[in-house]
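Journal club prep — side note

Before the paper discussion, L.F. wants everyone to see what a predicted structure for a comparable chain looks like in token form. Sequence:
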Amino acid sequence: MKFHELLQHYRSDILDIATERLMDANLPHYKSLGEEQCRAYLAHLLETTRQSAETHNLMLLNQYVEEISENRFYTGYPLYEVQHAIEDLETAVWVVLRAQLNSEDFNKIAGQIGMYFGAGKNLLAEAYVIRATQRKKPTINLQALFTGTDGV
């Protein structure tokens, strides 16, 4: 089976593990969403990853991760929480496929696991950094500190 076929075939097992890991992590934003919504988010990411693998087109995954980063950043999710969710899905893929495939078959797809999830995590981090540097934060006017003590 090809990588994208494996993701489809073991979809339920992967989502079970990833959702459990995410809920066990006690990340405030994801915990407040509840298990059902978190599973839906993970399912969408898994499906987008599957489609990218099937079409050999990282742009599908990149576009979705960009949407995730925009939504999560502007709703106050810290980067580490979003990265944790992606890492939980990646870990679940590793765990399930390692358990289901013989060594030879697993070795054939191992690089693809790292490639797709690594690309997604890198883009997420880049997008967060870009957004953070574009956000204007209030600053303290320090000019008064440098005017001296005359007139005080």
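L.F.'s comment for the group: The longest helix spans residues 103-134. Keep this in mind when we get to the figures.
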